[in-house]
Request: fold
Amino acid sequence: MVAKVLTISNEKGGVGKSFLAVQTAFYAAYQCGCKTLFIDLDSQANASRVLIKNEMVTLSNIKPADLFLTGEERDINPEAEIGGEENSNLQLISAINSKEELISLQENQESELIQMYSNFVEAIGVLKSQFDLIVIDSNPNADIRSNSAVGVADIIISPIQLYTESIQGLEGIVNRVGQLNNTARVYFIPNMVDHSELQVRTAEKLVAMNKDMLLPIHEISVTRNDDQIVIEECELHYGVIKRRNCFAVAQDIGKGVWIVNNNKSGWREIRRVLFTIMEAIDVDKEFSAADEVVFSLEKLKQAHPDKWKRLLRHLWMCGHTFGFTLPGLSQGDVQNLIGLKETSPISLVS
Ligand SMILES: Nc1ncnc2c1ncn2[C@@H]1O[C@H](COP(=O)(O)OP(=O)(O)OP(=O)(O)O)[C@@H](O)[C@H]1O
Ligand SMILES: [Mg+2]
Reply:
């Protein structure tokens, strides 16, 4: 097992970093069955406060600032200390009560900061062998913590807001990431989108200037014509997240957005974004489906030999949205196939 590292980073405050980090971690752990470690490097500890409200999260005994110490000074022990379900898929290195230690890291001399970065790389290397995915939420300033988080990432997601100043700042983010990590893929995801005239204009500019840094969402529509399934490619669009009260509520109660009542449209929108993020991360997870689920998968392959991958991907990304049963499969098979996302690598359908 070697975890992929997802870092959420933007030097602007309040753009939704902690929201997206937490919700991606919930989705990865609870909907995609990834053994996930969440590292909160922000002394404000906003993400930690949300996560500890979730009864399935276990708290690690590692302190986030300790990840920057040398091997002898730190004690990397990924065993959970308290709380949560025994085999929880989501473990938290919490920033609560670590404010001073986290802030004082930056007070070191330049040469010590270099050593601290290599300590952090080593610590993440140790942790990687215990998890499928590590999600790092970083603080809104370019210091040793957020730079290190960018440095170790396989993929970096930067939530942005659709205002002229935010778009002007994107070049700065690209340059900074380029200096710290030249292999990680970077995606900008507009968040708190309200479709005002100004935001629509800014979105058009963003697509014109930075299209290849947006998250492309490839979706299909599925219809049924007698016993024929007809698949059509939808127009390519990019991952954006609307401003929705139910998202703030989900954070407030420490739950995945799919659990909040009256949130059908919010979940329908964001699940496509979260699924596409998981596809981009491409977690290296083992296939461990139960026999009955494997049986449903075989039925799908037999009934739709050249369409099964696209149909299964659609079920994972959007749920059972086409409203009819697939020829050759029962409702139970369709439910099994949706659940298969938890026990299969996403790459099965990509
Ligand atoms: N799409 C959204 N719709 C509604 N509320 C949102 C959305 N995204 C984030 N929020 C809320 O906005 C507030 C700020 O978001 P968040 O704390 O995630 O920002 P941040 O970038 O982590 O801030 P900081 O830079 O201070 O760490 C939170 O209360 C969060 O729940
Ligand atoms: Mg935050």
